[in-house]
Amino acid sequence: QGKFTLLRDTRTDGSFLVHHFLSFYLRAGCKVCFVALLQSFSHYNIVAQKLGVNLTAAKERGQLVFLEGLKSCLDLLFGEEEEQSGQPSPLQFISESASNLKALFDFVRTSLTPAGSDSWKGPVLLVDDLSVLLSLGATPVAVLDFIHYCRVAVCSQLKGNIVVLVHSNEDSEDEENELVVNSLCHHSDLILWVEGLATGFCKDVHGQIKIIRRVSLELTAEHDHVQIYQYKIQDKNVTFFARGLSAAVL
Prior knowledge:
- The chain is α/β, with parallel strands linked by helices.
- Helices cover 34% and strands 23% of the residues.
- It is built from eight helices and nine strands.
- It has helices at residues 15-27, 41-50, 55-60, 69-77, 102-112, 131-135, 140-157, 175-187; strands at 4-10, 31-36, 64-68, 123-128, 161-167, 190-195, 207-213, 225-233, 238-241.
- A hairpin with a 4-residue loop joins strand 8 and strand 9 (238-241).
- Helix 5 runs parallel beside helix 7 and helix 7 runs parallel beside helix 8 (175-187).
- It is globular and about 55 Å long.
């Protein structure tokens, strides 16, 4: 509880980790607020069904609060957004001159603050993917402020967890995105860094994952614990193995 997990991908697609955490927390009985900026609800629902979770049922019973970013953006841009119960759209900053993510934070806090009848185990904020906010016009400072306030509200006050996906590329000229990624790395309790193979594409090894446990955050003299595995994504699960020990190689 109270942990901030950063999912980082470079030269590959790390969205399989988002699907894992979404199904994992729903099965564990947690209240989940999913800020989905990259794909539609039907996309996540189809993948979740393969993993044995029904997102539609989770929404109906109040366990899952789903923000469909693609739809909200279009509604805002074309003026079709209807204010629900007098509240502005969570992505209101798109149509305003000020890069202010307060409406998005208010949406997250309201979604995860437990009501009297709630019996969920703990609140979880899941964001896929944070880099999209920069593409929509938010400044790096506004994005980092948003994450900071979410950490205070979700991790510190509500004793919940936050899982955030960001795309990164060391060779990229997108300085704003790299600033956000590097800042988040310094504040994360756990980093799952998925990378494409340096040698190129391989049908039996899809990439490698670096698991970094930030022991240094606890102000001890120890170094961070780093483990590196390679993986292969299958239809309903992912196989992990030590580097060079793929079944195809052995």
